[in-house]
Specification:
By secondary structure, the chain is mainly β. It has three helices and 15 strands. The strands form five sheets. It has a five-stranded mixed sheet. It has a three-stranded antiparallel sheet with strand order 2-7-5, with no helix packed on it. A three-stranded antiparallel sheet has the order 9-15-12, with no helix packed on it. The longest helix has 7 residues.
Amino acid sequence: MPVKAQVTGRPLAGDVESLTCDPAIVLLRGPERQLAQTDLLYTETVDLEGRQTSFKKRCRVLPPSNVWTPHIDPPEVHVEITIVQQTDSHVWKDVPVLALVESGLAAQTMLTPARVNITLTGRSETLKNLQQLKPRAFVDCAGLDPSLTYELPVRVHLPPGTPVTVAVDPPAVHIVINQPSQQSQEH
């Protein structure tokens, strides 16, 4: 007789990809009339609440009815629950890149390119929550020598602890710092 695992609850992270019983078929003995009415047996319920990874559990095979007492061989099976992390991606296009400079610095920065695309990859639920918050791209220009040009990585500001992978395209920008002339500072 085929055996199917019963589950309750929802994994904390990911989705159930498969439920496998080993053995998948057990021997069921009992009255012929009762056996003819039985197509499938179930295991005791396996609680998935809060689980984050795949696991195995030894479970009793439940009788098909309370009306009669069958003989089930083997009386227990191993249930393997495969939990997979469902990831998704979301792309923000043409996000302006901001230059972080020291306060009071009158320099102007020219960034090339001035806009980037940001791709966040993570759990679908996490990305759904982030879609209202547009990520901010920036380069840290504090303490840079205005007589030089730079190629700096673009960084992305997200809420602390956000469990996502960040990809920026292009990953770096060219930076030129222009110090205003003494004359323009006087006007």
